[in-house]
Amino acid sequence: MSATSNLGPVVTLVAAVLVGTGLVTADVLTDPAHTRAETPVATAGASATPAATTSTASAASPPTTATTSDAPSTAQTVAQTVAPTVAPTTPAYAAAYLSPAVYVGRDATRRTSVAVAVRDGKVAAYVCDGKSLESWLTGTAAGTTATLAAGTDRLTTEVTSRGLHVTGTVHGRPVDVTAALASAPAGLYRLDTNGTTVGWIVQPDGTQVGLRSRSGVVAPAPVLVPGRAVTLDGQQAYPQEVSGDDRF
Asked: Strand runs (DSSP E) across 120-248, as ranges?
């Protein structure tokens, strides 16, 4: 048998194999169902998961506007916090020290007179015996009391139903006087001129006491007629009513 005749069956077998392979390949390429079956399951699952997650979140989360509309605003919160700190407070001193006024009085022996002028919580006082003792003091009220000082002299005034109770020491002498509210012409007067200072306390009954002082030397004050000039060292001058906010 020749070589050519021997190759016949082999060629026929190879051809049959090639034809079969081609048919299988064509079937795979042209069959959509076969192609979908080969698609990985993970791909389909991944594409579905985000949608499901989004839907769940939308159903569970309340609308943003509903939450913020019920919450207090920043301005409301600040107002509630600050309001207590800016609430009105009570005055630092009693009403007796508020309006301009003068209180005058004498001690039990009627030897020492005191006049206290008040205004807006400030206080000025004059203590005088008409002979050798005098002192001008100033201070500030706190509550129903006021503390006044001048050098080593000290006075305390306290509001009572009768006026101001004045206690302390002046030039080492104790002072204890209840001063009543006075109406003009009663009151406290002062004159400063040419290095001389004169003080007067006029009582409600019209009596008065005072001293003039120059370079530490004191002498009785001239008679005062409120509203008129006085003659001092040959010159006329007008005394002024003392106010609680005067400072000496």
From this structure: 122-128, 134-142, 145-150, 153-160, 163-170, 173-181, 187-193, 196-202, 208-214, 217-220, 230-232, 235-237, 240-241
Region of 147 (left: φ > 0; alpha: ψ -120 to 50; beta: rest) is beta
Q: What is the 3-state secondary structure (H, E, C) of 25-63?
A: HHHHHHCHHHHHHCCCHHHHHHHHHHHHHHHHHHHHCCC
End of a domain among 52, 86, 120?
A: 86
Q: What are phi and psi of 225, to 5 degrees?
A: -115, 105
pLDDT tens digit string along 54-94?
433 343 444 444 444 444 455 454 444 444 444 444 467 99
pLDDT tens column, 23-52? 334 443 344 444 443 444 443 333 434 443
Instruction: List the structure tokens of 95.
Output: 């009403």
Place of tokens 């003392």: 242
Residue with tokens 């609430």: 87
Q: Give the confidence band of 247 by pLDDT, cuts at 50, 70, 90.
A: very high
Q: Name the band, by pLDDT with cuts 50, 70 and 90, for residue 206.
A: very high
pLDDT for 233 equals 84
- What is the rounded CA–CA span in Å between residue 96 and residue 100? 9
Quick one: 156 and 236 in the same domain? yes
Evaluate whether residue 101 is within a structural domain: yes
Range of the domain at 78: 3-86
Domain final residue, candidates 86, 118, 142: 86
Inside any domain, residue 246: no
